User: Fold this.
Amino acid sequence: MPGIISTAPGKTILFGEHAVVYGKPAIAVPVNEKMAKAKILPNISARTESIQFIASQIELDMEYSQLEQKHPLRIAVDEVKNFLQIENYPSCKIFLETSIPISSGLGSSAAISVALINGLLNFVGYTPTPKIVSDLAFQVEIEFHGNPSGIDNTVIAYNKAIMFQKEKPVEFINPGAEFSLLIADSGIKGNTKTAVSEVRERWMADTSTFDLYFEKIGNITLQAREMIETGDIFSLGKLMNANQELLVKIGVSHSSIDNLIDTALDHGAFGAKLCGGGLGGNIIVLVNESSAPHLSDILINAGAADVIYMKLKPGESA
Ligand code: PMV
Assistant:
């Protein structure tokens, strides 16, 4: 049984986070500039089932059997065993690493799950469809996030720009032009689980207002899909700003996020919004290709901990 390497990209949500939890559509794209990786090597010396996890970035070196029942890595292995209908998984050493910053809205947990699950299946000679990997990773996401919509595991497992809506088949988006995007890290750790549960409390306290916010975000997302497909960068920027205004209203922005967004817009960005759960984490900024390096420097000077430059290109998602 040869060793294998399985990778999965980060992701960013262009439109519709939070509203997607309430059944509205959202748009997400993979961020291949950041990756999670699972390297699985056979351990022929082990007599009984031995699955050893080594993740030096978080100082983890532990046997699967020693992980608590609800540990995400354990759930991933259990999901795979269940799917393959096997009682024991072949003994192996699993090295996990990631360049995706954690708790920043870039899908680090889902990327680890996708890389691991795909790797575990590949290691035993099974080639899964993206849907199979996504569905299994969703079970792990439930443990991480409590009430996830499923957008993270879906966009990461397919590694394509998608429009996602709960209970509906995933749709792929083919951009009509090249879009330049900066993803700037506020340096404040976000917390998706907390953000999602706080939004739920507010929704329960004032359902009609929040339903209206989600409805508006859903409509913005539908318009945004059209602008991506027709390559209308100006309108797309305006829609990002409109989406951000609603994210502020539902209470998931943060002063550091607002500050970076204001800076980006003051320096010529077409649009900017937070991405992911919020309360910190990253913003996404739509820019002119020629001004991207300069704006990136400005965002760093304004306090961004890191800036990623990525392009959304035609033909990559069809
Ligand atoms: O913070 P992230 O990157 O995991 O994104 C969360 C997106 C939400 O819509 C807030 C939650 C969800 O499950 O869709």
Residues 272 and 285 are 4 Å apart (CA to CA). The longest helix spans residues 207-230. Residues 13, 17-18, 20-21, 105, 107, 145, 148-149, 151-152, 190, 192, 196, 276-277 surround PMV (CB under 6 Å). The chain is about 40% helix and 25% strand.
